[in-house]
Amino acid sequence: MPRVIDRLHSEHRNLERLVRLLDRQPSLLVSIDAPNIGLLVDTLYYLTRFPDVTHHPLEDRIVERLRDRNALPAGLAEEIEAQHVTLARQGLALLRDLEGALRQETMSPELVEVNIRLYSERLRHNMAVEELALFPAAVRQLDDEDWRAIEHSTPPREPDPLFETLAETRFAELRQAIALEAVAATPEWSQGTGEEAGS
Ligand SMILES: [Fe+2]
After folding, report:
1. What pLDDT shows up at residue 130?
2. Measured in angstroms, how far is the CA atom of residue 57 from the centroid of ligand 1?
3. What is the average per-residue pLDDT within 85-104?
4. Surrounding residues of ion ligand 1, Cβ less than 5 A
5. Mean pLDDT within 141-155
6. How far apart are the CA of 113 and the centre of ligand 1, in A?
7. What class is the 3-190 domain?
8. Per the count of CB atoms within 10 A, which of 46, 78, 149, 178 is most buried?
9. Ligand 1 centre and the CA of 145: distance in Å?
């Protein structure tokens, strides 16, 4: 398995943890309290500053390479690139809405709530399309030279500020929520045995 695909798969596992966390947040309509919004803000802050600037551009390079080889249907290539553009745009808009809510500015909880659900579904769908169609096509069609070109065409990768380094202290609360979510998602029989759900 090419190193780039391994990395993208493992980043998807981390993104799935965040999608589950978004799905399980109490409804903003019932609990529009600051801790809940703070966690959502940190999640969107991370998603717009790491996956949107490293993970998705790397996948876009793979799409371009496959398109150059006529090894990916044009409709699918456009679909994946459009999904990345929409996720980045909607993530930034949601972040603005949530930060406005933290400052007690006027907002529509109903609209933010719906947009969070849509965002989370879009991200889940985007990962499914990539794992079902993009990654298998890339593994089949691209050779070592392609993978070298793809790696060299993207900037050197910084460590993931949420999952790979503890230096970013603003994510302390989010890391704790992810850890608690993993415990909640683990069947009781396997808790305390070192097995972790979703890993
Ligand atoms: Fe992806």
Report:
1. 98
2. 9
3. 88
4. 130
5. 92
6. 24
7. mainly alpha
8. 46
9. 22
